[in-house]
Amino acid sequence: MHMHWPALRATAEECSGYTEHSSAIPLGVMSLKSRRQEPKNSPGLRNPSWVIARTARQCMSIAALCALLPATALAQSKAQEAAATTQLAPTPPPEAASRVVFAGNQHFPEDQLRQALADPLLSIHNEGLTAPLADDTAYYLDVFYRRHGYPNVNVSYQIRGRELQLNITEGRYYKLGKINFAGNQSFPATSLNDYMIGTTRARLSQFQKELPFVQADLETGSGLLKNYYISQGFPNVQIEPLEYHFDEALGDVDVTLTIKEGQKFVFGAISFPDVPGIPATAFQAKASELTEPPKPYSDAALSDLQRDVLYILKRYGHVTAQVSVSADMAAAKAGAVPVKVSIQPGPVYTFGRIVVQQRPTARLKPDFLPNRFQPLMGQTYSPLKLQELDTQMISTGLYDSLDFQETPMPDDTVQLTLNPVESKQKYFGIFGGYDTFYGVIFGGNFSDLDVGGEGHVFSASAEITSRGPKAKISYEDPWFFNTNVDFLTEVGLEDQSLYGYTYVDEYIRTNLTAKYGKTLTTGSKEYQTGVFLLLRNANLSQINITPETLVGPTSYELVTFGLTQSIDKRDNPLNPRKGWILELAASDSELLRNYINYITLTERFSVYIPVGPTVLAGGVRFAGIFPSQGGVLAIPIEERFFSGGATTVRSFLERKLGPRDIGNNPLGGLTRSIFNVEDDFPIYAGVIGAVFFDAGGLGNSPFDNFSTGVGLGLRYNLPVGPIRVDYGVNPAPRKSDSFGAFNLSFGFAF
C-alpha cells in the first residue's frame, strides 16, 4: 500500500506531543512551543480542566487521523510526496547546531543559562539539531526558571536552519513566604518546616535567607513530611493538598499545609520463640531497643526487626533460617502494638568448601586465599568471622575487593566462592615534611606487597633529615608457615647528629609475632605476642659532652633478645574515640665487648573515653634499665631513656627533660615515668582542639627530675592518623629549663 508521508508525520508529531504548529509554516522555519507548556490560569498552578480538554482534543484528532490514514494515503499526489520527502530530510550534521541563541532572558546571563543546559546542548552538538532535542532543551530551561522562583515562565523555541532560538517569557519572580501548618500537634512547626524547604535549601547556599518559590520542591517536601510522620508512629497520617496564596504586592507565596495526624502507635510487647543453641537474651536485647522506652511503631522499623533477628540467627549458624514478624494493630492498647516474631531456624551450618575464581591476570598463587580461609573450615558459620577475615585481607593492600558468595549446600555446609580483584602491588613514593626535632625531612620508599605470589612484603626506604640520613630494607611474611604468626626481618643504617655527639648505627632485627583475637579496623589483631632478636653495631664520634665518660661505651656490639605483649581494645587504632591499649615488653641485652648485661622493662597503658563530642584520653608509662654492674655509665648513651618532646612531656623539647652535662646536653637515664591527660574537642570539620597536662621524671629513679607541662594543641585528622601542633608551658621551670616548647609531629602523643 502506498502511504502518504505528510499525514503520517502529522500523526507522529501529535502522538509524541513534540509540536503544535500550523501546516502553513514555511519549510525550514518551525515555531514550536514546549510540550510541557503550562497555562497562566493561576500563577504557578496548572488548570485541570484545560489539561483534560486539551488531552481529549488530542485523542480525538489522533483517532480521526488514524481512521483517515489509508484513504488519504491513496489520494496524495507525487508533488505532495516530494514535499514530504523534503520535510523528512536527513538530520543536519552536528556542526549545524553550533549556534544556540536566547531571547527574552532578563534576570539570568546567557553563560548561566548555558551552564544549566550543559547536557542537552552537548547532545545537540554531538547528534545534530532535531525537534525532540530542541524540545528537551526548552523543557530543561523551563525547569531551571521554575527552580529559581519563576512559576509563570513560558519557553518556546524556533529552528531556523542551523540555529536554535529559545524564546523566554520569564514572568514575575516569587519568593517563598510563610509555611503555615494546620493540625500538627506532635511536632513543632520549625521541625516540619525543615522538611518542606530541604530540597530547595540543598541547591542554594546555606547563608541565603530568602528562598525562591518552587512548587515542585514543596510537593516533594510534603511527601517527605508524610514519611517522617509515619516513621514517628503515625501510620494513618494524611497530608492534604497544599494551598498557595500569592501576594502580588510583596511577591510572596504563602503555603498552607493541613495535617491529620491520627493516633500515634508505639511498639508494645515483642514475643520470640525459643531457639535451641541461642540464648533468649540475644533476642531480648534487640527487643529492648524498641520497647525500653517504647519507640514509635512503623512498618520500616518492623522490617528492620525482621532483618536484625535473621542476622542473629546467621551469627549462630542458621544460614537458611526464615523469620516473619506480625503486628496486631487491632490489639493495640493505649497505642502499644504487640508484635510476634515467628522463626523457622533450620539446621546449623558450618564453613565448607572454598572456591576461588581468580582472574587470568592474577599474580597471587591459586592456593593463597584458600590457605587464608582454611582456619574457618569446620567452624560454625558466622558472618562476623567472614567480615573480620575480609577486613584483614583488604588491609594487606593485596586486594581491592574479595566479593564473597555464600552458598548453602545439602550437607549443611556453606560453600564460599570468592571473586578477588587484586590491587596494585608495587609502589614507589617520595615524601617530605617537618618535625621539630628532626627538622626538614625528605625521602623515598619502595614496596612490593607480593613477593613470589605468596603475599610476602619487601620494602626499602631512605630519608635524610637535618640530623642525618637513615635507610632500611625489610622482608615480611605475614603468614609464617601458613599460621597467624608474622615474620619480619629488617636491616638498617643510621647516621645521626644528636645533642652532644654523632652516632652511626648498623642493625639487624628479626621479629616473630603471633596475632590472635578480634580483628581491628586496621586489619591487625587485638592480641599480639612476640619475640625479637636485635643485633647492633654502633660507634659514637664528635663527642661534645663534658666529661666524655658520661656517654658510656662509645663503640659497642649489642645482642638483645626480647618478649612483647599487647592488648588493643580501641575502637580505631589510628583515630581512637574509646577503648584502651596495654603494651608490655621485656628484653635481655649483652654488650659483647664490655661484658655488661642488662634487662629492660617497659609498660604503656592508654585509655580513651568519649564525653559527648569530646574525647578524654589518659596515659601512664614506666620504663627501667637494670645493668648487671656499673650503673648508668655502663650503658651506652644511645641505649638509655630520654624524655621531653611531642610524645612525652610537651613543655620540653625532645630529650631536654632529665640529667644534663655542664653544656646543657641531655644524658638520658635508666628509669623514667610519663603521665598524660588530654581532652580533644571538635572545632571545625577535621580540625580538633586539645588541652593537655603532662608530667614525668627521668634519672636513676622514675621520679627524678620530675616536671610538668600544661598546654593547648591543634590536630587535623587524616585516615592514617592526626597531624599535631602543641605548645606546652612549664609551670615551675628549673634553672636550665625553658619556659615552654612548641612541637609539630604526626600520630598520637600516647
Radius of gyration: 38 Å
The structure class reads alpha+beta
- The low-confidence parts are 1-97
Give the CA-based shape. Answer: globular
User: How many runs of DSSP E, i.e. beta strands?
Assistant: 32
Main sheet: which strands, in order across? 17-18-19-20-21-22-23-24-25-26-27-28-29-30-31-32
Approximate helicity band: 10-25%
Q: Please indicate the percent range of residues in DSSP E strands (runs of 2 or more).
A: 35-45%
Q: Overview of this structure, please?
A:
With 750 residues, the protein is of the alpha+beta class. It is globular and about 95 Å long. The protein starts with a helix and ends with a strand. Residues 1-97 have low confidence and may be disordered.
Give a brief rundown of this model:
With 750 residues, this protein is α+β, with helices and mostly antiparallel strands. It has 12 helices and 32 strands.
Key descriptive features of the protein:
750 residues; alpha+beta; 16-stranded antiparallel sheet; four-stranded mixed sheet; 12 helices; 22% helix; 40% strand; globular
Write the layout of secondary structure elements.
Elements: H1 5-16, E1 29-33, H2 48-75, H3 78-87, E2 99-103, H4 110-116, H5 118-127, H6 131-147, E3 154-160, E4 163-169, E5 175-182, H7 189-203, H8 215-231, E6 238-239, E7 243-247, E8 252-260, E9 266-271, H9 280-291, H10 299-315, E10 322-327, E11 336-344, E12 350-356, H11 368-373, H12 383-395, E13 399-401, E14 404-408, E15 413-418, E16 421-422, E17 426-435, E18 439-451, E19 456-465, E20 468-477, E21 485-498, E22 501-519, E23 525-541, E24 555-568, E25 579-591, E26 596-611, E27 614-627, E28 671-684, E29 687-699, E30 707-718, E31 721-729, E32 740-746
Parallel strand pairs: 2-4, 5-8, 9-11, 12-15
Antiparallel strand pairs: 1-3, 3-4, 6-8, 7-8, 10-11, 13-16, 14-15, 17-18, 18-19, 19-20, 20-21, 21-22, 22-23, 23-24, 24-25, 25-26, 26-27, 27-28, 28-29, 29-30, 30-31, 31-32
Helix pairs in contact: 1-2, 5-6, 7-8, 9-10
